[in-house]
Amino acid sequence: MAKFKCNQEVIMDLVNPTVCSSIEIVPLSRDDYEILERSSNSVEEVFLQQIRIVGLGMSFPLWITPSVCATFRVEHISPSSNQATLVIPSAVLNILTPTEGRCSPTSNEHPTAKKIKISDLFPRIRGAVSDFSTPLPLCAEAFRVVPNSLVKESILLTSPCHPCVIYILGDESLHYSLYSVTLVESALNPSTVQFALSISVPPRSVSDDVFSESIVSVLKMKPNLCVVPNNDYLAYSTILLTTVSERQIVFVKNVDVFPSAEDLECFLSSERRRDIEQSLRDMVVVHPLLLSAEGLSLSVNLGTRSVMVHLVPVDDMTPKERHRQELCCFTAEAACTFTLKFEPFAKKSTISLSEPDNYGFLSQNYSLNLGSHSILINELSEWAEYCWSHTGFGHALLLGSEGSGKTAIATCVARKLAFDHCALSVRVNCSLWKGSHSETVEKKISTEIKKLSARKPSLLILDNFDLLNVAYEEEQRNLEAEKVFQMLWRLLSASIVPVLIVAKQMNSLLKSTITPVGKRLFAVRKTIPSLDQVLKSKNAHMHITNNIFDYLILSTYVKQLLGTEFHPSKDVSDSLPSQ
């Protein structure tokens, strides 16, 4: 639309945004006029979905339906402006005939012009079926939140981090992004009412836009994924998005801004106050801020530091009237005024706002798998997938001698689940339990299980479980070890999160844990041969004999895996080329 050419340099200047109260547009042909005239309800619904900035003389294509498009030119803007202006929901749209546009290019009123008031809602949400349906149904739909650590470099650096935006994948027929005001429900913070502007991006990139290509590639990893740029703590959790009905949305002209107790000093500086107000205005220029009746807490970036503020809508409703409106969404747009207050607000959040570490993404990429190991990785991955849909199926026990690569196999399982299902995996090094009391261990495991339960699908890996296999002479230490086992049996039996226990040998676990009376603890038990045994097998022997480079790759893999040099047995060494 902008007529830019590939690799062309463009000079961009920052301007103060202005808001228009009315727009006059002229269809470029009689066919375009008939499309707009016959589809006035659809025009009212989709105009703000596609066009937010207009300028005198600009031409736009307007997609009425995925297959019907009308092209028009901006003929007049009120109040008159020589630069581009923002279109807000209260603006009035006048559709002129092509003849009227040619005869009177600057006319303010035409008696025969088709007038449409762009809805009092941003964007318009209707429950009735129309030619252009809303991105989300008027019922809750579950979405898995992609961790921002996967998308920050490609997405968040190319787009402002808006606190009220959620990106989801749109329908295949979309030619542009669709917007929907939605209620956000999360099991991580069920008592807080939150609203968001859900943006459905088209699956097929129609331009060389880096932002569109990046976010689409992330959302296509798995169905029903979403990106929440400004809420890291929601990573790997499942949220419910419900389209907000028209009667629930209230536009406000004034919003009070309260500081946190820690950032109150920033409000005492006039320069800081101006920076905070400007940052908030920059946010609503991009997208509106959606507030609940209790308000919205967000972080404002001031360049050198960030401050926490709490926004509270100011409206004419009494508290009793506001209470009657079920889940009322207060919308602050570009024309809104922000008033800074000096009374600090009390923080209610008790959860960690940081993104949880995923062992599947933090671990190295072990792309080299030896014969049976790749099969074992797939089997353990399938076990975890089955456990997610069959609660109580049983956990897994992975046994292997020193140097067998059991930790690397657990790592590969976590990595495979992370990329295939966006699953969250946590590895606990049980060797750190040495000398700890059972109460300390119980608190650690309980915390991890609780965190993973709220972010299913997930996996807990208990590695180096052999520390409890130490033969102490003192009877008290044996009793303490048995107490830890009994505690683990109780926690793991009730866990809805699948647990992969990694140990050297069966003796590492108490007999009562392996063969319990009643419910079984382990549904899957796997034993790994050592790497030296794998190399003695016929396939590995032929592979190394035929190609010395495969041996070098294998040696490097073992060194990275175990942190030690690899020394094959004599019969394998004899088969290697002398050079």
Structure summary:
By secondary structure, the chain is of the alpha/beta class.
Task: Explain what the structure shows.
With 579 residues, the chain is an alpha/beta fold. The radius of gyration is 31 Å and the shape is elongated. The longest helix has 20 residues, at 475-494. 32% of the residues lie in helices and 25% in strands. Strand 3 and strand 4 form a beta hairpin. It has four domains: 19-95, Vcp-like ATPase, Chain A, domain 2, CATH 3.10.330.10; 141-244; 248-340, Vcp-like ATPase, Chain A, domain 2 (Roll); 373-528, P-loop containing nucleotide triphosphate hydrolases (Rossmann fold, 3-Layer(aba) Sandwich), CATH 3.40.50.300. Helix 10 (371-389) crosses helix 11. Residues 22-86 form the Peroxisomal ATPase PEX1 N-terminal C-lobe domain. Residues 397-509 form the ATPase AAA-type core domain. InterPro entries: ATPase_AAA_core, CDC48_domain_2-like_sf, P-loop_NTPase, PEX1-N_C-lobe. One of its GO terms (biological process) is peroxisome organization.
How many DSSP E strands? 24
**C-alpha Rg (nearest Å):** 31 Å
Per CATH, the architecture of the largest domain is 3-Layer(aba) Sandwich
What top-tier CATH class of the largest domain fits best? Alpha Beta
Helix-strand category: alpha/beta
Fraction of residues in helix: 25-40%
InterPro entries: ATPase_AAA_core (IPR003959), CDC48_domain_2-like_sf (IPR029067), P-loop_NTPase (IPR027417), PEX1-N_C-lobe (IPR015342)
GO molecular function: ATP binding; ATP hydrolysis activity
GO cellular component, one term: peroxisome
Domain ATPase AAA-type core: 397-509
